[in-house]
Write a structure and sequence with these properties.
Length: about 525
């Protein structure tokens, strides 16, 4: 059996798409990356979604069986070298936790489900970093997937537009071509449905002076390959070539009748619906030409994973800073709450046996920075308003659970609460979430008086019998004498904790040297 040491220079990226599951393994050598393994399995996860957005048991079983097979290839890979991204089908599935629970039994790596906008950003990142185009030019990237279509526009690494629309080759095949018959009427319905999905951004896209457009995914790869089949040497998609291709396709009566050397029987099942989506978007945006790129989501994930870890951290912090500015957060107060949280977390770490990794600690820090983001709406419900903003904002860099955890911490940062109301997380355990929430609540209360120069060292935190839920907060006697309201607030907090066993908060007023 190969050791973890053997895989120190290998990285695995998995894309759990609505149509297929992909795994790519790359080896890093002398700062160059080389693909050493690829695997694609057609799972058709989105086919198993019913009208109420529940995945069928058979689709769950197909996906889990694939992950069990992938796990064999990943034996002894260090967790930090494996990244697994779930997209549309898992994003919308109401019973996705059933899938994740079943998957966890056979697949030992966390599955991160990303928002449509984050997926679009990563696709854009993968495309522009693997194509030679000037940084100053405006780039357009589209990916027609199994369940959704992602669109992004930008110049540099951070796109100015990221959009995801619920239209994909699997879902549109099911909706518009249920019997796999090809008719002009069905094609036009699918095409106009796609145009309708993007109509609100047509004006923005057309006004952006796009210099070069890229298309990724199986649908666009198939269009590119068919153009090569029929003698288009460069494979560039233009309005005339696309019109001709659509005309050719509409001459066939059934999916099985389509006959091009490069089009597999598997792809025939979803090609016509994917073509209709792409045709609708291409025409709606008035694109002049589009180039196929092999690089998309997986390459974008890989770039952030390997290219420069500090850049990904920068994306997180830029997102937090942008939200802070947008909602005019009191920066000094937010900074003081964050410093207090860092101080208490450092002390908590010295006594607890629970692992709080760097990502979780960062989420606590960001929750402290943004806990008042909803203040402009209303103070009395600030925790609810702030949580709503964080849950529903576009947050580049964050996967859905990271964003939801951030929102959840902020939602419960003040007033009475019920631990039973905390949502389920697949990436985080309650024993990790509880201390983050406890420390955030304490840090906000300690800074309730909004003192500009509060010194966190007048507080000392420890825990009882290595139980991460039971804390002792010591307050300096001199500080307590001059800050009776802080002490009063903490005593009220004690009562909130008593109502939520196993939480426990002891407060001691002592001499802190």
């Amino acid at each position: 059996m190969q050791s973890k040491q053997h895989h120190n220079h290998e990285y695995a990226i998995m894309d759990l798409g609505s149509n297929s599951f992909h795994m790519i393994i790359m080896k890093k050598s002398d700062n160059a990356l080389q693909v050493i393994y690829k695997n694609k399995q057609n799972i058709h996860l989105a086919t198993g979604l019913n009208s109420d957005y529940f995945l069928s048991q058979s689709s769950i079983q197909r996906g889990v069986a694939c992950l069990a097979m992938f796990a064999e290839r990943l034996a002894n890979f260090p967790a930090s070298h494996v990244k697994v991204i779930g997209t549309y089908a898992l994003r919308v599935a109401k019973n996705r936790h059933q899938f994740l629970t079943e998957a966890a039994k056979v697949f030992p790596y966390p599955i991160e489900i990303v928002s449509g906008q984050e997926e679009a950003r990563l696709i854009y990142l993968g495309a522009i970093n693997n194509e030679s185009v000037p940084k100053s030019e405006v780039k357009f990237v589209i990916d027609v997937g199994g369940g959704s279509t992602e669109i992004a526009i930008g110049k540099a690494l951070n796109p100015t537009l990221v959009e995801s629309r619920p239209m994909g080759c699997v879902t549109y095949a099911k909706q518009f071509f249920p019997d796999e018959k090809i008719t002009r009427q069905a094609f036009e319905k699918a095409r106009f449905a796609a145009e309708q999905q993007v109509e609100k951004i047509i004006h923005f896209v057309k006004n952006n002076n796009i210099a070069i457009a890229f298309g990724a995914s199986g649908t666009i790869k198939s269009i590119y390959n068919i153009l090569l089949d029929i003698g288009v040497s460069d494979g560039i998609i233009t309005p005339k070539r696309l019109d001709d291709l659509v005309s050719y396709i509409l001459e066939f009566n059934h999916f099985d009748d389509i006959n091009y050397p490069s089009l597999s029987n598997e792809r025939k099942r979803v090609f016509v619906s994917g073509l209709a989506i792409f045709y609708g978007v291409f025409k709606a945006f008035g694109l002049k030409e589009l180039h196929y790129t092999q690089s998309a989501l997986r390459e974008g994930v890989l770039y952030e994973m390997i290219g420069n870890n500090s850049k990904h951290q920068d994306i997180y912090q830029k997102t937090i800073d942008d939200l802070s500015k947008l909602y005019r957060v009191d920066e000094l107060h937010a900074k003081n709450v964050a410093l207090t949280a860092q101080h208490l977390m450092t002390q908590w770490r010295q006594h607890a046996l629970v692992d709080i990794d760097a990502v979780l600690e960062s989420i606590l820090d960001w929750a402290a920075q943004l806990h008042e983001i909803g203040l402009g709406i209303n103070f009395s419900g600030i925790h609810k308003h702030s949580a709503y903003i964080l849950q529903h904002s576009n947050m580049p860099g964050f996967n859905e659970e990271q964003q939801f955890l951030l929102s959840t911490l902020v939602k419960y940062h003040r007033k009475s609460f019920k631990l039973d109301h905390l949502p389920y997380f697949s990436l985080f355990e309650k024993k990790q979430i509880y201390p983050l929430l406890q420390i955030l609540r304490l840090s906000v209360l300690i800074n309730n008086q909004r003192s500009e120069n509060l010194d966190p060292s007048v507080f000392k935190l420890t825990i009882i019998d290595h139980d991460p839920c039971k804390m002792v907060l010591m307050m300096d006697k001199t500080f307590a004498k001059h800050n009776r309201l802080v002490l009063f607030d903490l005593e009220q907090e004690q009562q909130y904790w008593r109502e939520n066993k196993p939480w426990q908060l002891d407060i001691q007023v002592v001499d802190i040297a």
